[in-house]
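During the no-cost extension, the postdoctoral fellow (Dr. R.K.) reprocessed legacy sequence entries with the updated structure-token encoder. One reprocessed record is reproduced below for audit purposes.
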Amino acid sequence: MLDVLEKYSTVYDGPHATLYDCGTEVPHLTIGRWKGFFRLSDSKFIDDMWESIRVMKELGTIAIISDHSELKVVSQDVLDWLHDNWYPNAQKTGEVKTPRFGDFYSAYAFCFEFLGKHQ
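Re-encoded structure tokens follow.
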């Protein structure tokens, strides 16, 4: 997937999250690459999660393609925190869909169609 990302500008790069802006091709679409070990005791993880929301709001992100290929561990307490804190603050459309895709292009096509319905 990294070769696909080369054409998009990196708008945030932290230890646990890298965000790419797809707005020149598809307005309101962001790619998030989540990486490393997610631990609530790691302040850099928490900072990255809040910063990713700030950047997505600044970009006007409505859809995000999440790449978890570099993610190492997500424990239940982190999943609970994400559910209670990250998702409610990151969502903009009122809809949260989290389908899985086998490749980037399938996810991209889904987001393109999804955004077409919400513009």
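The longest strand covers residues 63-74. The beta strands are 9-13, 17-21, 29-38, 63-74. The remaining legacy entries will be reprocessed before the final report is submitted.
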